[in-house]
């Protein structure tokens, strides 16, 4: 009967354990999910609190870098983007070892790094690792540290620390501020921490300024990438030449700027080609070239020069590429450049060229391909020419001429130097003086040349030519020197004059061009130890801008000045 009842479809009285256990499992999973979400929300809230507790400038810089580099908006960064973000905030590393260390840390953090992970985990790890790698080098680079600490106390005076910072071309204001209450004793560990922090902030300021120029002129990404290394310098030069503040440059102004950039070839045929590129661009505008159009002209000139050198450079490159890998090591590149006659004349040029070579190795592999090498050669040539122009500026200033007068002399010299030898003989100089409406007898010119030409070559290079102009000024009353007024308050002083003085103090050109006007005045006042409302002439005892530059040179830190502190 029992079985019949069951077979007859009687009511089911047994429980349903599978349904109950399935429901309990789902409820358990939902509970776990809720707990995980709550834990994640709590962790995010905690991370947000820690992030908001960062100093304002640090937090803003990290947010800005993250938003600029994240291809997925606010979702996260991949390891390469995270490494690029580190570079944007001054923590990208220099040289293959440091760059590799940064990339390794970013890779360890995973494929989707959010803002909080980047700010609170990646950046502190990268910062600590770079400091660890640099601290030993700092002691070697600033070789004075242990010499100055001769008494074995482990401390340096505040003045010594400031001087070493200035010798390294760093913004010493952080050292000024953080050691204000140190009783004139700074231990080496504190000094190293401040140096690393100052270097990071200096690079960060430069990166931000580059983006400001990009955004202001609405440059596209490709143009920005091509010019990012020197875009701030180009922007500064553009407005320096834009005397009427029209936002446009004439053909003559563009020619001067191209020469100052080190882009003007030596041969007459190549110069004519550059001039034709400028004329063609100028013909397509009504009021001259604006900044974006200038960049296009510079890009065309660079491409033209690279195309003209391509075959010759490829032969040289392949000669050094002995294993036919298509790549050369950084050491081989240095040897190759020396073979090409691109040799630094002094320590400053040595350091600049080393930085260019390391920067060409973008992926930190320690090798450079031919296309990278082609661009590098162009950059090196421009850099060397630009640095030699800056040396000429120093010579002109030491002789009492302004940079405007220097450009006039340079234009005449280059016009008369038809063969591109970099030297002018008596006849060429005499013709140049006639062009400047200064009819000096040829015999008089020859006599001055004999006095200036120590090697009896019967010709003068440009620095010696400046000496000739100075002689004609001092002995014949020609070329009156417009030295520029300094009978004004410091805060009214021309920005270019302040920047140039700070560059003499070894501050990086790109950095002093990047800082805001108020920061520039503050830097100037601190380096010269004067107040912003003081009269420059009274506070510093100078009568002209060239006098100001000479004073900066006298105050430039050296081993001797450090030893006397």
Could you please describe the fold and organization of this structure?
The chain has 565 residues and is mainly α. The protein has helices spanning 2-7, 17-52, 56-69, 79-88, 95-108, 115-141, 144-148, 158-167, 173-178, 188-216, 221-227, 231-241, 251-260, 268-283, 291-320, 330-339, 347-360, 370-398, 403-416, 426-435, 442-452, 462-476, 495-504, 509-514, 517-528, 536-540, 545-555, 559-564, and strands at residues 155-156, 186-187, 327-329, 367-369, 424-425, 459-460. The strands form 3 sheets. Strands 1-2 form a two-stranded antiparallel ribbon. It has a two-stranded antiparallel sheet with strand order 3-4. Strands 5-6 form a two-stranded antiparallel sheet. The N and C termini lie far apart (115 Å).
């Amino acid at each position: 009967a029992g079985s019949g009842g069951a077979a007859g479809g009687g009511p089911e009285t047994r429980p349903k354990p599978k349904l109950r256990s399935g429901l309990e499992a789902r409820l358990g999973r939902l509970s776990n999910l809720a707990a995980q979400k709550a834990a994640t929300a709590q962790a995010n809230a905690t991370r947000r609190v820690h992030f908001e507790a960062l100093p304002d400038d640090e937090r803003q810089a990290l947010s800005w870098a993250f938003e600029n580099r994240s291809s997925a908006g606010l979702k996260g960064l991949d390891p390469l983007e995270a490494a690029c973000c580190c570079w944007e905030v001054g923590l990208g590393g220099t040289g293959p070892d440091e760059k590799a260390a940064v990339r390794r840390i970013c890779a360890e953090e995973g494929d989707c790094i959010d803002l909080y992970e980047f700010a609170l985990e990646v950046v502190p790890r990268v910062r600590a690792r770079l400091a660890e790698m640099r601290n030993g080098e700092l002691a070697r680079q600033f070789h004075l540290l242990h010499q100055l600490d001769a008494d074995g106390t482990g401390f340096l005076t505040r003045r010594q620390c400031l001087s070493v910072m200035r010798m390294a071309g760093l913004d010493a204001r952080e050292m000024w501020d953080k050691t204000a209450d140190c009783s004139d004793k700074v231990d080496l560990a504190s000094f190293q921490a401040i140096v690393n922090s100052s270097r990071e902030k200096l690079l960060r300021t430069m990166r931000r300024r580059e983006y400001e120029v990009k955004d202001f002129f609405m440059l596209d990404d490709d143009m920005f990438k091509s010019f990012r290394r020197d875009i701030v310098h180009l922007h500064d030069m553009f407005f320096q030449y834009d005397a009427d503040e029209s936002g446009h440059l004439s053909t003559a102004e563009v020619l001067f700027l191209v020469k100052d950039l080190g882009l003007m070839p030596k041969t007459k045929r190549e110069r004519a080609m550059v001039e034709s590129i400028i004329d063609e661009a100028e013909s397509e505008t009504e009021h001259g070239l604006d900044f974006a159009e200038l960049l296009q002209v510079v890009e065309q000139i660079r491409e033209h020069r690279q195309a003209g050198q391509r075959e010759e450079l490829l032969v040289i490159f392949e000669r050094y590429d002995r294993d036919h890998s298509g790549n050369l090591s950084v050491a081989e590149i240095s040897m190759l450049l020396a073979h090409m006659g691109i040799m630094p004349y002094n320590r400053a040029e040595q350091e600049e060229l080393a930085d260019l070579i390391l920067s060409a190795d973008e992926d930190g592999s320690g090798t450079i391909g031919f296309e990278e090498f082609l661009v590098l050669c162009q950059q090196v040539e421009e850099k060397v020419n630009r640095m030699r122009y800056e040396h000429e500026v120093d010579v002109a200033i030491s002789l009492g001429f302004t940079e405007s007068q220097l450009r006039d002399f340079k234009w005449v010299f280059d016009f008369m130097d038809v063969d591109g030898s970099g030297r002018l003989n008596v006849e060429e100089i005499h013709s140049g003086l006639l062009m400047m409406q200064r009819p000096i007898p040829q015999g008089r010119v020859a006599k001055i040349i004999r006095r200036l030409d120590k090697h009896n070559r019967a010709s003068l290079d440009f620095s010696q030519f400046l000496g000739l102009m100075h002689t004609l000024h001092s002995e014949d009353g020609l070329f009156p020197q417009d030295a520029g007024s300094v009978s004004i308050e410091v805060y009214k002083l021309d920005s270019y004059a302040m920047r140039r003085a700070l560059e003499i103090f070894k501050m990086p050109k790109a950095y002093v061009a990047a800082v805001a006007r108020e920061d520039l005045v503050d830097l100037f006042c601190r380096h010269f130890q004067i107040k912003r409302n003081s009269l420059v002439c009274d506070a510093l005892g100078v009568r002209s801008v060239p006098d100001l530059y000479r004073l900066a040179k006298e105050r430039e830190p050296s081993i001797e000045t450090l030893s006397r502190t």
